Amino acid sequence: MTHPPQVAPNAAFSPDEFRQRAQIIEAEVGQVIVGQRDLIRQTLVTLLAGGNALLEGVPGLAKTTLVRTLAEVIDCKFSRIQFTPDLMPADIVGTTLISEDEHGHKAFRFEPGPIFANLVLADEINRATPKTQSALLEAMQEHTVTVAKTIHVLPPPFFVLATQNPLEMEGTYPLPEAQLDRFLMKINVTFPTSAELVEIANRTTGARLPQPRKVANGELIKRMQSLARTVPIASHVLAYAARLITATHPQTKDAPSIARQYIRYGASPRGMQALILMGKILALLDGRLNVAFADLRAAALPALRHRCILNFEAQAEGVSSDEIVKGILESVKDE
Questions:
Q1: pTM
Q2: Positive or negative: CA dihedral 113, 117, 123, 127
Q3: Residue 305 near residue 321, CB atoms below 8 Å
Q4: CATH number at residue 159
Q5: 53-85 pLDDT, tens per residue?
Q6: Distance between the two ends of the chain, CA-based, in angstroms?
Q7: Based on the domain organization, do 171 and 299 belong to the same domain?
Q8: What residues form DSSP beta bridges with 55?
Q9: 104-118, 178-192, 236-250: lowest mean pLDDT where?
Q10: β-pairing, 144-147 with 150-153?
Q11: Domain containing 198: what range?
Q12: Calpha distance 221→17 (Å, rounded)
């Protein structure tokens, strides 16, 4: 097992190194995860953007394995939280206890919860009550946890990957719009093909299980995150991103007919931030030093599908948010 590369405190990080390191990370994760190239790419983009991701897919599609493998590859602390209806906020963030030393002196001591990790898997997040779900809000947005009026800073890099099952909705609590908006992207996990199922069986039922190498560390990921934010974006490309966001709001004069008909409320400014950050990283991964229209179009579905709140007509007619976002992309010109 190789050791992660040592990064000097003031070492420069070039765009070529960014791309090479990202490719190596993807390749190592791909040693364990069969297929799902879009899933691996979008999860890595979310991590490098310093955001959080919501994965939706039926059970058994290696969502937990993906996060655990990614944590091993980048040599970061992994934590898994199984959300259930009886889970309490203190079970996530931690609690303050009264401890006693050998001399009998008592004092308050903070016992950190599982949220104090680099990569946190919030499994079946919609099974917990809204009160427990809200315990993640501060951590996801501010990367801090407040317990008993004391603010505790979470270790960087910090990344929450939450999963939810789209099939079994009985006894679940749908995520409120305010919490959905905290996720940089929502990733739909697709079912593998027949060939991929055969490869999954070969890799997981043999005598030797695939073992990914450690090819990065937390310091390197932080430098990659910093570099991604320095990628320039031209004013006309930025204006295109703004038009995409505006087009999701049915009350605006430039909203396309599909938005007026099916959207109740459109994407927030966080949607704009998600488009830009994802566009910058996609540009670097493609070997470019500027954001193109194609980068924003590639980022639109995972960045906006959960930020377009559909009305009753869309639900009654079975129109998905993906169809609406695609319709908006066709309507908004990049000129």
A1: 0.85
A2: positive
A3: yes
A4: 3.40.50.300
A5: 998 877 777 777 888 888 888 888 888 888 888
A6: 50
A7: no
A8: 163, 187
A9: 104-118
A10: antiparallel
A11: 15-225
A12: 12
